[in-house]
Amino acid sequence: MLTELSVYDNVLLALQSLQAPLQLLRSLSRRRLDEEVMHALDRFRLADRADDLVGELSHGEQQWLEIAMALAPRPKLLLLDEPTGGMSPEERRVTGELLLPIKAECALVIVEHDLDFIKNICDRLTVLDQGCVLGDGTVAEIERDPRVQEIYTSRV
Q1: Any idea what the Cα angle at residue 79 is, between residues 31 and 8, rounded to 5°?
Q2: Does pTM top 0.90 for this prediction?
Q3: Which domains, from first to last, does the chain contain?
Q4: Which of 1, 40, 96, 146 could form a disulfide bond with 68, CB atoms 3.0-4.6 angstroms apart?
Q5: What is the pLDDT of residues 77-90, one digit of tens each?
């Protein structure tokens, strides 16, 4: 993510990364990709910030932009490492809403410490403790797992 560029241009660059270098030399892709860029921005509630510099966005909005950029090339798998780190409670809630529909088009692997956040997004959870699998299963199974409960309650 380039903070000195606009929000729009960051998503455009993510989409242009799929093009061959020769195509970029005589690039007319800005016009051709405009609808796709704006769809990505709208999807992550950033359409009204398209012309703003990335450095002017809040931390949460920057995270949303990074996710929009990662999804722009239509990956089959998206890896997210603590996507809500440093966000306000409202930004965390919105991030959950934004991630939920992604599951229909792309597999998600999310590393996250906040079980309340992650349980509304994931179908299956794997809980690690000191690098070892402590539990694996549905959200309900993990919430009932006494080993998981012990680790979570003993470290709060």
Answers
A1: 20
A2: no
A3: 7-122 (3.40.50.300)
A4: 40
A5: 999 999 998 888 88
